[in-house]
């Protein structure tokens, strides 16, 4: 059976942790789903109207996280790291049961999601995957910040630059091929903030569950986390992780080249909305050939993350 067929997980996987912004304890379970189901969130703490689909059209908040809502106002927030893990591992179909409104932040990266999914294993179906191929360049700008996507042959390339006045973060740049490069550093990279922003963020009712256990905190020229950084480009690498997760709200894996400067959840969501408003911008096709050079799954992530 071809690796280009749709995939789900073999057995249920459970996570428990704190919501980064809500500060509440959350239980989350991944369960296998039938082909063509896609990714579905289910709020099991609610009895009715509790299904939420992680589509770019259902994104209702992009301030410091990505939040999705259904037509009844039921929501799930901070989905981006889990969505990035599912994208990287090529999970096409899964039911995500959650008993609160925010995905647990765990260690602030996608590492634990990937580790447990790999331990569980996969089930391949007899249905081929679908891919979105970008046909025309599309760009979205917001002042000095911008994001664009343009055609590519068979890869999803993400080129990201980050500019901070803080000297520890500074200007960081990275470019990756999502399907072929070693992305362990990307998926291990944690969310981060400046110490001086914490009070402002908390006044907005956010980051109630934030700590040095789940975020990098930078104060002046110092990283407050005792073990420092996991990799030299952890700040920009985390932004790339967020971008991968947010891109998966298009519903399928993508062939295209993404360039982003000073971006985040808002820019990625606005780019997707702009891409899919015009049918000539993209093509959705079914992958049935068994001789393509790769499987649109990142092979480096199929090895256990230490």
Describe this entry's structure for a reader.
- The protein is α+β, with helices and mostly antiparallel strands and 306 residues long.
- The protein has two domains: 5-129, lpxc deacetylase, domain 1 (Ribosomal Protein S5, domain 2, 2-Layer Sandwich), CATH 3.30.230; 131-302, lpxc deacetylase, domain 2 (lpxc deacetylase, domain 1).
- Helix content is 19%, strand content 33%.
- The strands form five sheets. Strands 11, 12, 13, 14, 15, 19 and 20 form a seven-stranded mixed beta sheet that branches. A five-stranded mixed beta sheet has the order 2-3-9-4-5, with helices on one face.
- α1 (80-89) packs across α5 (234-247) and α5 (234-247) runs parallel beside α6.
- Helix/strand order, N-terminal first: EEEEEEEEHEHEEEEEEHEHEEHEHE
Fraction of helical residues: 10-25%
CATH top level of the largest domain? Alpha Beta
Characterize the quaternary organization of these chains.
single chain
In short:
The chain is an alpha+beta fold and 306 residues long.
Key words describing this protein structure:
306 residues, alpha+beta, Ribosomal Protein S5, domain 2, lpxc deacetylase, domain 1, 2 domains, 7-stranded mixed beta sheet, 5-stranded mixed beta sheet, 6 helices, 19% helix
Give the secondary structure arrangement, pairings included.
Elements (H helix, E strand, L loop, with lengths): L4 E5 L3 E6 L6 E8 L6 E5 L7 E2 L6 E3 L5 E3 L5 E2 L3 H10 L4 E5 L12 H10 L1 E7 L1 E5 L3 E5 L2 E6 L5 E8 L7 E7 L6 H5 L3 E3 L3 H6 L12 E4 L2 E2 L10 H14 L5 E9 L3 H12 L5 E5 L20
Parallel strand pairs: 4-9, 11-19, 14-19, 16-17
Antiparallel strand pairs: 1-10, 2-3, 3-9, 4-5, 6-7, 7-8, 11-20, 12-13, 13-19, 14-15, 17-18
